[in-house]
Amino acid sequence: MQKASDRPFHHYFGQLPLNPRYETLGIQDPASLEGAQRFTSIMWPAGNDRFRESVHSFSKVVVELDQMVKRMVFDAYGVGRLYDSYKASTTYQLRCINYKSQLTNETTDVGLIPHTDKNFTSILHQNDVGGLQIKTKDGEWIEAAPSSPSSFLVLASDLFMAWSNDRISACEHQVVLKEKKARYSLALFSYIRDGVVQVPEEFVDDKHPLKYKPFGHFDYLRFYETDEEARKSKNPIKAYCGV
Ligand SMILES: O=C(O)CCC(=O)C(=O)O
Ligand SMILES: [Fe+2]
């Protein structure tokens, strides 16, 4: 397998001791023709137009959904003025995820252990094999069953929480594999490519003191990737840049 990205968390993952059934490949900038082409040429040096077209057209639509949701949230929180510059510094990764149906002597139903994502937003789409669960604010796990085959789930991740000075919570989720079939899902992750992530001044006042220092998104990912303690922490983004 060719390592095709120097960005943290943009490469292949699989055979992880905590998540043995989870395996995923990341496609960088999937909504651009160049991004879809770059990945396709790595996997199929002789070309695969159908795959490239599917990645590109799927990602374009899901990126539009991401932008629409974020614009609504920025407007609702009174910081619509920041949306365009935020959008200009956003980059995307599409992760194609496979949960193996069975491993030899495999007994675990763990697909993915409980976590929050380390990006800004995640948009998830799963096949007919369910398993995604979301933790409510009361600490209860609920099934996130799609209402139709074309359902998408938009989750706020660590960056959305830090940027909003904790007004928005990062969504804790996990995958529990109850069926014997293979499970496939697609996750579009958004990242801040340039500059620092900073809490807007509108979110800070006497009642809401600043909770996060300005930080770079990829610096946070590198910290998380290399720091064992950070990965064990209940709230790694607070450990990284909490005030
Ligand atoms: O497979 C899913 O539905 C969720 C994937 C996920 O949470 C992740 O890759 O971070
Ligand atoms: Fe996740």
TrEMBL record:
The keyword RNA-binding does not apply. InterPro entries: IPNS-like_FE2OG_OXY, IPNS-like_sf, Iron_ascorbate_oxido_reductase, Oxoglu/Fe-dep_dioxygenase_dom. Keywords: Iron, Metal-binding, Oxidoreductase. GO terms for molecular function: metal ion binding; oxidoreductase activity. Residues 90-192 form the Fe2OG dioxygenase domain. Transmembrane segments: none annotated. Belongs to the iron/ascorbate-dependent oxidoreductase family. This is Fe2OG dioxygenase domain-containing protein. It comes from Malus baccata (Siberian crab apple).
